[in-house]
Design a protein that fits this description.
about 400 residues, alpha+beta, 3-stranded antiparallel β-sheet, about 10% strand, binds zinc ion, protein-cysteine S-palmitoyltransferase activity, EC 2.3.1.225, membrane
Length: about 400
Amino acid sequence: MKECEYRQIPPGTPAAPPSSAEPPGAVSVAVAAANAATPAGRQRRKWEVFPGRNRFYCGGRLMLARHSGVFLLTLGLIVVTSGLFFAFDCPFLARNLTLAIPIIAAILFFFVISCLLQTSFRDPGILPRATPSEAADLEKWIDNLGTSTYRPPARTMEVVINKYMVKLKYCYTCKMFRPPRTSHCSVCDNCVERFDHHCPWVGNCVGKRNYRYFYAFILSLSFLTAFIFACVITHLTLRSQGSDFITALKATPASILELVICFFSVWSIFGLSGFHTYLVASNLTTNEDLKGAWSSKGSSEFANPYSHKSILTNCCAVLCGPFYPSLIDRRGFIEADAGTPSTPKSEIPSFGTKSDASMNSALAVSTENDVSGRGPRSRTEKKEVARRLYT
Ligand SMILES: [Zn+2]
Ligand SMILES: [Zn+2]
């Protein structure tokens, strides 16, 4: 399998990177010495001070997005529909057709539920935020890049991936340059590697660590829904042979509910499965497809740099690639000597904490000044403008 070439190109003539051994953008969990232990003396774990908008269960072993109501609806619909099928249709079908029907349905049901739970409760590939010292180092490094011009330094970095230039954006919340294919989920407030989308139906982001489970979930759910739908139709047809259809419906009223649920859900589930099959075959994410990031239209300049140019290799790379460990170490203990302040949310905002929009407007203002010739002349003036714009 082809290896991705990932070489960083220093923009312009950069100053020396941060003094720490890690490259700019490398991150670790922000922990607070003050939070290391509760008043009772119990050592606290990292999930208890996790800065993102997630909920943790079972001592941090399981995690979900904060609003998980739709996930419970998904789980409820699958369990109720399958439960009705096992209770009202399976006994008749096993007696009059074959025992294979309840066995196949049971295997599909357990597969669907296990894939759903793996997707929902897994860390989707969250990148830990930079610690205050790492963020300060990076800010210093970025600041040094802008010393030769009046404009604030651009918050992007270019890397080469498979001979294609890819731009990395700076995340103002996580205080780091997002690695390739990483995006910040506005619902969970985390940067997620190989971010696909935030799925309220599974109550979690879909990313690098849970995409294969998500794909297996929607694919197996398509089969389960179609299987139940076909079996219920068969059940009603067999029952109505001796009498009329209304009498058959009266004998098994739950079948109507199953038919309605399956009929209305099967189209969207089939559509979603087809769409994600196309994404897997092209090694794309939903995020990239919706943004049209690699809409090449035949031009090699913007072709998807992650594609292995073969459907089979792309499928293997996405679905059978290595299992990546979680980087947020949510069960780890907070170290007492791990450094200063608390979570990034409670930090005194540095100039990097402004939103992209405010940064863009600030850049626009700065450019205007330069063009009109009313821009800051001296280094002190330049610093003052930067201070006013970003603090
Ligand atoms: Zn982020
Ligand atoms: Zn999310």
